[in-house]
Amino acid sequence: xxxxxxxxxxxxxxFLESVHSGHAVICDAKGxxxxxxxxxxxxxxxxxxSKMIQALPLLRSGAAKxxxxxxxxxxLACASHEGAPIHVEKVxxxxxxxxxSDDAFRCGAQETRDRGLLEAQIRAGESPCQIHNNCSGKxxxxxxxARHLGAGPEYVDPDHPVQRACLDAFEDVTGETxxxxxxxxxxxxxxxxxxxxxxxxxxxxxxxxxDSAEAQLHQAMRLHPELVAxxxxxxxxxxxxxxxxxxxxxxxxxxxxxIWPERKIGIALKAACGTTRAAEAAIAALLVRLGALDANHxxxxxxxxAPIRNWRGTETGILKPAAGLL
Amino acid sequence: xxxxxxxxxxxxxxFLESVHSGHAVICDAKGxxxxxxxxxxxxxxxxxxSKMIQALPLLRSGAAKxxxxxxxxxxLACASHEGAPIHVEKVxxxxxxxxxSDDAFRCGAQETRDRGLLEAQIRAGESPCQIHNNCSGKxxxxxxxARHLGAGPEYVDPDHPVQRACLDAFEDVTGETxxxxxxxxxxxxxxxxxxxxxxxxxxxxxxxxxDSAEAQLHQAMRLHPELVAxxxxxxxxxxxxxxxxxxxxxxxxxxxxxIWPERKIGIALKAACGTTRAAEAAIAALLVRLGALDANHxxxxxxxxAPIRNWRGTETGILKPAAGLL
Lengths: 326, 326
Description:
Two copies of one chain form a homodimer. Chain A is built from 14 helices and twelve strands.
């Protein structure tokens, strides 16, 4: 295996304090590698970066159409949202349309990451529900598909028709037979592939015809960046900073993908240490490299060449992208 | 530079998902390396792992004695506490003894990491103060020393007598001329040294005579593990798990040190990627290796061979120490 390539450096005063490295692949419409750093053959779990793949059966089955899902719901199906009121309300309305309560979810309760809502819940003595889970939009999509297929309630079971359809879609767009899966934070199976396979899948999304399931999903993400993550978050801010040209999605343990339809390009990257700040710096650097993102946009500067400040607001250091990415 | 050595592996299902590496040194009383992983010569900022060094002038100057500081206050001077009521009350009493208010601190306001107190503050509409900063005990020590020296209020200025005394102590115990400093999260200068130098300093603490400043500090830490960090935290739990034999202290960006007086051994380690879970796994593994910690103690198993659980409590993976550390 090729060693991971440097992704980002953390400097404090005159000292290099920490270093991140990882693997990254840029793919074209044919699924060929345009450029790569580290090892493109590394087996990865794309985690939440595969949500748009997991949403494909929702469209391909006809479930989205027959349930009249709009672009907001498609964006939420691909989201790792922060459980802010905007997300909770829209997923809640979707669940109401399905006639389902919070108990139908299988993602588990997660505290909201929206500070205002968190404080309101603490003041009201309320506990977090499954709808606050960052994956509740994906799970509303799973429930919609399960209803459409007439399948049972245990939709995260790897043998459930919903997950079998997700695996089929995953192997289709990655062009690989998945070597297995891990169980994700939200309890759904997360199939593995090579990093090249994930980048290939993202390039297929980028190159898909206008009315395809793939295109409907990345269009929905680019149309509603605030639904895909939330205010202040990397996916939301960087998608906006590209002017909505590029669809972006983070995944746990330092994953990030990009879909750039205009150029029919897909990117997949993984920080070897699993660190979010490294993955965010690397995706921002690669988007700058490709000309999709302005190096001086505030959203870019928050992820690369970002000042590190202490409790008094003093600038104590800087996060820099490693040489060779930009 | 020797490449960092593997520290920890994150497995999810059958897949190795993330890998951490770093540098570690075990030193004896003569300051010689007993065993090392990665590069012992790497220049590091020990961050909060140097708090017991920064507390040396408080004792050596006679300030601690003339202000009647007890073991609780010495432990707090070395602490990165979680701002729980026990920490806030004891640092508050110390500040009251000094006749100083929260405004005298220069560490900056930081939200408490104690969930109960956080919720109480939200319900009461209270904002975090500087006393909730994890470093407020260290800063109460700085203020005590400044008072003793008749020095001014800007005690985090690198040219202030308090910081000059800290640098002198740092160079004394590391046996090195520091190449410079970074500014820490709490605004105090944090001098750099080689990792070997930090391990040498910790071995000197371990080997220091019973009534020395060094011994008084590690005795205070081992006597009051709950004051050094807080319930559930690595320093507190692992110190207790060693039966109070070993003093332990974490530092930001993946630092950890250990002082084992019985064996006159010091350890310093740094996760190259700056990740806390890697540093905690590595220090626990080395303490097991040396026979200071039971591999099957719950506090050990929380840091190495720790199950990773998702929002529904399902075990989805495991954090394992890398081969060669245990």
